[in-house]
Design goal:
By secondary structure, the protein is α/β, with parallel strands linked by helices. It is 29% helix and 29% strand. Strands 5-4-1-6-10-7-11 form a 7-stranded mixed sheet, sandwiched between helices. A 5-stranded mixed sheet has the order 15-12-18-16-17. Strands 2-3 form a two-stranded antiparallel ribbon.
Length: 388
């Protein structure tokens, strides 16, 4: 993985099982914990991680109604139908996201809702140095088989998520025989290469029995969330340098004049970053990235936004909605509006119907009316745990 390029990381949540061992009429992934389905608890952990590009669920063909009820109003992820076995479901899920061209895919069981953001970060980080990795629990108890003690050293309980380069695991599943119960086995059968084990605790249990369900109820916090609003405002002037494009909201838009700025002068991302920091009551861009520091000169403003998102993630918060208003006589924003929304939706892992991008002139009044620069106002809503 190239450190200078942000990879597209997909999450494939396998949710096609019937869960008959639980003894319930409803499949286990749709059972309730603290007023929310197990699958939604699982989805929410990944939704809170800014490194995740998109989430795709693989469900049973007869679970459509249950699935829609379980995820409620959430629509920041897609879904498709699986097959008769878990192995078939994973392969069908991988094929379903092929056109979205993920670089890395994390494959996770819907019935493991207690995985933590730290666990997932550790797994993603390991892919910088390994071709495949999985969360796993080292065995600590004594093991016996037919009265003979087994050496427990180097014995691991394999968990999920499991991480792979997308092209590799797709090839492995395409060529695999039936009978595999996890994806690291499929990968190793194809490539004969070791998979990196990332130590994880017992908390990342798979809900299989009623006892597991009770344990998960104790591990998952029943904490209410509150909604907070923040606003940001930024201005950048044009200078006399000729240019072909300017950067607005992370997109290069054709324009003949360059914008002045210590960084890349992206007035849209600057306002958005300040709005998030404002909602968190955590200063502004200037306090985190002082313009007096030449280390930040010509910096891509996505890095400013990444900092604000990282702070939001540390506070266990999530973005709910963003509203951006660009104020200028030129360039015309309308032709690029859809592209901007699509970019922000992908970058923020936020549905496009929760992103508003508007443009207005100031009726020839003020510096924007005279065509001397661009201003931007951004308003965001975030959700953070109560009493954060």
């Amino acid at each position: 993985m190239n450190d200078t390029q942000k990879p597209t990381i997909a999450v494939l949540i396998v949710a096609g099982g019937s869960g008959i061992r639980m003894g319930y009429d409803t499949p286990k992934q749709y059972l309730d914990i603290h007023g929310q389905s197990i699958i939604q608890h699982t989805i929410s952990v990944f939704e809170a991680i800014s490194d995740i590009s998109f989430i795709h669920c693989v469900i049973g063909e007869d679970h459509e109604v249950l699935y829609q009820q379980a995820v409620q109003e959430k629509n920041s992820h897609s879904h498709s139908f699986g097959g008769e076995t878990r192995q078939q479901s994973v392969y069908l899920g991988l094929k379903a996201v092929e056109d979205r061209k993920p670089d890395i895919v994390l494959i996770h069981d819907a019935a493991r809702p207690c995985v933590t953001k730290e666990d997932i970060h550790n797994l993603i980080h390991s892919m910088k140095n390994h071709e495949a990795a999985t969360l796993a629990q080292p065995v600590t108890e004594s093991l016996h088989k037919n009265g003979i003690m087994i050496d427990r050293n180097d014995i691991w309980i394999i968990q999920t998520p499991q991480a792979f380069y997308y092209r590799d695991i797709l090839k492995a599943h395409k060529n695999a025989d039936e009978g595999f119960t996890d994806d690291t086995s499929v990968y190793q059968a194809e490539f004969c290469q070791p998979v990196k084990y990332i130590a994880c605790g017992r908390h990342n249990l798979k809900i299989t029995t009623t006892e597991d369900l009770k344990m998960a109820e104790k591990l998952i916090p029943s904490q209410a969330m509150e909604t907070i609003t923040g606003s940001g405002f930024d201005v950048h002037a044009f200078d006399d340098r000729k240019a072909d494009t300017i950067r607005l909201c992370g997109i290069d838009i054709p324009h003949k004049k360059a914008l002045k700025g210590h960084s890349d002068a992206d007035v849209g991302l600057h306002a958005l970053t300040d709005a998030i920091l404002g909602a968190l009551a955590d200063g502004d861009i200037g306090s985190h990235f002082p313009p007096s520091n030449n280390d930040f000169k010509n910096m891509d403003s996505h890095l400013f936004l990444d900092k604000a998102l990282h702070i939001l993630e540390q506070r266990k918060g999530e973005l709910g909605h963003i509203d951006i208003t660009l104020m200028c006589e030129e360039p015309k924003i309308g032709p690029s509006r859809t592209t901007i929304i699509h970019h922000l939706s992908n970058y923020l892992n936020l549905p496009s119907n929760r992103i508003s991008v508007k443009a207005t002139t100031t009726e020839k009044l003020g510096f924007t009316g005279r065509g001397e620069g661009i201003a931007c106002q951004a308003i965001v809503t975030i959700r953070v745990p109560e009493n954060d």
